[in-house]
Amino acid sequence: MNRPSLIIVALASALAVAAPPQGKAKPKLVVVVVVDQLRRSELDRLGPHFTGGFARLLSTGAVLDGHYGQQNTYTGPGHALILSGSYGYLNGIIQNKWYNRERGRSEGMLFDPDAKPIGGESDPASNPDNDTSPRNFNGSTVGDELRLASGMGSKSVSVALKERGALLLGGRLGQAWFFGEKTGQMITSTYYLDTLPEWVAKFNAQKLAEASFGKSWERALPVGAYTISGPDDSPFEGDIVGLKRTFPHPLTGGGDKPGPKFYEAFMTSPMGIDYEFAFARAAVEADKLGGRGVTDLLAISVSPTDYIGHTFGVYSQETEDALVRTDRALGAFLTWLDGRLGKDGYVVVLTADHGASMPPEQAKKLGLGGARVKKLQIKGAIDAALSARFGKGDWVVALEDPSVYLNDKLIAEKKLAPAEVQQAAGEALLTLPGFIGFATRDNLLKGELPPTVAARAIARSFFPARAGDLIAVQAPFSFWGKYGEKDFGGSHGSFYRYDTDVPLILAGAPFKPGYHGAAEMVDLAATLAHVLGTAPPAACEGEVLTRVLK
What we know:
The protein is α/β, with parallel strands linked by helices. The protein is 35% helix and 16% strand. It has helices at residues 3-15, 40-45, 53-60, 75-82, 88-91, 142-149, 163-170, 198-205, 260-267, 270-287, 304-312, 317-341, 360-365, 375-390, 408-413, 418-429, 441-446, 453-460, 497-500, 522-532, and strands at 29-35, 62-67, 97-100, 105-108, 117-118, 156-160, 175-179, 186-189, 216-217, 249-250, 296-302, 346-352, 396-400, 403-406, 435-440, 470-474, 501-507, 514-520. The strands form four sheets. A ten-stranded mixed sheet has the order 5-8-7-6-11-1-12-17-2-18, with helices on both faces. α4 runs parallel beside α7 (163-170), α11 runs antiparallel to α12 (317-341) and α14 packs across α16. The relative contact order is 0.21.
């Protein structure tokens, strides 16, 4: 397997998508709700506590077991795939961060020096992620194709607290709104607009985030309803920005007035969920989504669930409570849309960008194994091994999971074969707990991978211009990277089923209610394009899920 053959397969799949339906009324609005960090199994495990949006969609929609066929199950790659139907090896979004060799620094995958935030502060020296756009994303999305098919009459609007959640669902031709972590306001990028619209300024003037300052996050259900989750005070949970590990969680950020730490606490609470849906309502009203005689698209990425999962863990009471509150907020939003557009006037998609692993320490205590590996351990092991074999040097220039970036200049100076150095680095990696395999840049470029599902998942997450020289493969319940540097909470980013399996529900007039088995997540974009009668996104590899259509 090599890259040229993968690209040929991708283009062939896109051309093979079924023709659009004829003579059927198109929905006024397509609503795509992405719950950031939601395992498919959670809808079953916590099902008895759902009475709102989740319950409604499970009973009225076409229910599928969604699966991501790529290794890098992170927020960026997941959101890039959902409405494009393409994997990272084509769309270029393979990690949340990467090492830019040209600039000699690690950057957010969506960093764009030519874009500035509108409504927030730009400070690229201290936080390069502030200046963002979808320019690093290759291809198109369902929203992009919808706009093109309507002569740009349709609108595609995306909402999230995380910029990558909004930008990647919004695509290249839509509009994306996300939360300014320093200002506590909804902002966008100059890629989309030159000035902040009046309706967004009015929304920000309400200071809805600040209204939560000094309040506490209490449980939504009676205490007894949380026995299915772990103890409230678990040693595997974190205490960040004054939230504490147990209910009630105070929302002050540890300060006496709103500021960046308070906004972080706000985003790590259900108050952030309600805030997003409030902004989504404002967007529908201001842009008259679904009410202008053409089909529009609204994408909402529920970001707080991911922050909460990373802090408290997938089996925590906090995660359970966050999902209960997401269920309620979604239910209220859909009821509001019913009154505005009619129940049959719009369609809804519910899915997630990835699942999650429990904290490694928790998995290890349960007898499942698991390791949280620090970057210094990885760099130390590889530097020591390569120095012993090839001569002393600073061999590792960056670590952005799952990529290890080696020192190309040093390799060239010593006149070494890159493939040999990469292999030696991989062997050094395997001396650390929690690592069970690796793939090298040389392996991937030459197509020298075993014929396994895992190898295919790794190849789908490899984009040469941005990937490292070594791709690490960790054991189940093990991880490193941003959340590996902490001593609490869970994470994601593997091809294991707890990371790859997510809910996928399509509800509305075109879809048959009931359970319809498993589906690859790349099939969603192809299916939506078919229902809307548009061309599939440019690099879409999916197939139309004809079994869910009436």
